[in-house]
Amino acid sequence: MSANSAPNSEFKPASSRRRWSTLTYRLAMLIAGLLAISAILTTTFAVRSVQDALYSEVSQSMVNVHSSVESTIDLQYNSVEAFRQAELDARRDGLRDIAAPLATTLDQIRSMADSGEITMEAAQENSLQLLKDVRFANEDYFFTYDRSMTAISHPDAKFQGRNLIDLQDADGKFVLRELRDVALNEGSGYVDYKWVRLNETESVPKLGFVFHYEPWDWIIGTGVYVDDIDAAAAQRLEAVKNELSTSLSQVSFSQDSMFFILDQEGQLIVAPMGATELDEFAGSPEGQKVNSALAATAPAPGSALVETVVPATLRSGISEDWVMQTSTIPELGWILVSAVPQAELAGPGRTIAIQQLLMSLAILVLGLGAGLLLSRRLVRPVEDITKAAVDLSNDTFDPTSLDRAAKRSDEVGELARTFQRMGDELVKRERKLREQVAKLTVVIDRTKLAESVDEITESEHFQRIKAQADELRKNKPGKE
Q1: Domain locations along the chain
Q2: How many CA atoms lie within 13 A of 242 on its CB side?
Q3: CATH fold of 260-346, please?
Q4: 463 partner at 20 to 30 Å CA-CA among 64, 157, 237, 444?
């Protein structure tokens, strides 16, 4: 290896190479790439799992609150029905209590006829007149029919003496047929129907009580109008609606969720107190269309909730997708609707997703930094060995340049120590070789000089000159 040889162009110091082409940065980029792929896959899976789990959790919460509100409505409606039923039961008991002494009076009159005090015809005539004249409560009265359902005692003159077997009420019910069947088959009982009050024209609900007076085969009945009970129940139901309006304004399962109630035609009948945007939306053509669709797709009572996603303008004047769940309340036929912006259902999952993404980025940055430090620690000894190899080829190798790498206890340290020994030996061998070459050069130069002198002295020209010189010495004066 000559000192004048040119450096090997295949080896370049790290400083002369582009930064991105160094092993350190390639290893760092590999680590960063692996971390990035791992972070992306992990984050994507985690985010989707969290979003799905939270969406299901919020949806289930929505279902639970919806069921609670539905139960509250049922309880309040049942209280109204309980009031109505209690009033009807009181009226039934009252009718039976009023009819009982009347049957006793008829028995007394009949016993007078049996004893001969009056004739049977007089007894029946007096009894029919008595039945026609009896009044109780709100001018309520008794009526009497024979088996053919001919009115033999009726306070309304237009019915007196007529056969009313085919008479129907406003709903098409054959009232007299049902009264006769109850009386003859059960002895006594109740029939609900609609009838017109005396001196009025509009039919209203009426509760009738009828019994069979077997001694004379009469069917005697009476009834009380129950429209006042229905009116009181309706008032209570309106109060329930007002209470529900207040309650619905206080019930929610997210920031902007709401509940409202529709009828079977999709008309808004109960809205949360202060929900002006809901009222405006329900009155708009778009809102009427949406509410009609909700009513049309509502489930049957007792069925699972039906979920629909519809665009609606229910907050801040902005149209957005709302998740709406509907259920049908038994008896009332009301449709309970729970609504929540779809963005809110996905909101918790989105927040967790952002947090997960930031955490993944932080891990990526930390991993990249750690990767750079680790790769630098791993690659720096390799760079030292590479530089030593370049220095060795350029005759500038210094064994001490590998001291730091040689201190490592791994394979790289072993390589550095081996290269250090090999390089040191090569340097020593080259130095010794150069010394030998120098000595050999001197010997060769002297030999060449001797050969050149011999060539000069043995030449014909040199011999001629030498002969002339010898001749001159001989002929020199003063010398024999």
Answers
A1: 260-346, 416-471
A2: 6
A3: Beta-Lactamase (3.30.450)
A4: 444
